[in-house]
From TrEMBL:
Protein name as annotated: Putative pterin-4-alpha-carbinolamine dehydratase
Superkingdom, natural source: Bacteria
Family according to the record: Belongs to the pterin-4-alpha-carbinolamine dehydratase family.
Keywords on record: Lyase
Native organism taxonomy: Bacteria, Deltaproteobacteria, Bradymonadales, Bradymonadaceae, Persicimonas
Organism encoding this protein: Persicimonas caeni
Length: 94
């Protein structure tokens, strides 16, 4: 069973917990710039472990030292607690 979608009010409340993320349509997104390409790749590898543990995988786009992330719960059709929980774990790795 897919997780329940969050209401707009719940999304706004959860966004306060992850201040560097932006609500865009049915997802939350963040862009992070690192010192080097290898720092960006190391970060991607660290967050991969969190994604696997949560069985919830972000869309990841990497160009040189910049990593762009997007989270949404596809099987629910929008934002759920899974997106915000994973975003908070990702933030700990920055």
């Amino acid at each position: 069973m897919a997780p329940e979608l969050l209401s707009e009010e719940e999304i706004e409340e959860r966004l306060e917990e992850i201040e560097d993320w932006e609500w865009v349509d049915d997802s939350i997104e963040r862009s992070i710039e690192f010192e080097s390409f290898m720092d960006a790749i190391d970060f991607i590898n660290r967050i991969a472990n969190h994604a696997e543990e949560a069985d919830h995988h972000p869309e990841i786009f990497n160009v040189y030292n910049t990593v762009e992330l997007s989270l949404t719960t596809h099987d629910s059709g929008g934002l759920t607690h899974k997106d915000f929980d994973l975003a908070a774990k990702i933030d700990l790795e920055v």
